[in-house]
Design goal:
The chain has 154 residues and is an all-alpha fold. It is 83% helix and 0% strand. The protein has 4 helices and no strands. Helix 1 packs antiparallel against helix 2, helix 1 crosses helix 3 and helix 1 runs parallel beside helix 4. The longest helix has 62 residues. The chain is elongated.
Amino acid sequence: MSAHQVNTAMEAKKLLEEGGSPVEAYISAKANLRSTVQCDAVAEAQMQDAIAQYTLALQEVEKALPQVTTDEKAELEALVPAYRARVQALRSALTAVQVPPPPVPAISPVEDDAIKLLYVKGKVDDAKTRSQKIADDAMASFNAKKQQHSSTAA
């Protein structure tokens, strides 16, 4: 760590200590505004990825259809309309969010270090941590529903 980085970290600690809860609230608000815009970017990228995955899955179905049995073909063809509808819904949602996100507030190096200190203290979350938790929760919910469906189908 360079002397400059140490000085910035010390200034951040001093800022939080001397400013008390009003400064913590201000720094936390700026951190959350930044995190929200980061989350927005992640959500948009995930929608684009979901569209690409659905499209690829539909292409795989089209390639598989000439090679499968009549029953397998019927099973796959029955799913295609729902997958196409989902692609369309995701494209519509993606079009709706093409409005540029709000600006991220200016955050000085000292404020950025103060945010890191608040993060370590558990007073703010970062976008990556939140996104990972949401993704983990969504997968757990999906797997639970899949398991429930499997046990009722058996």
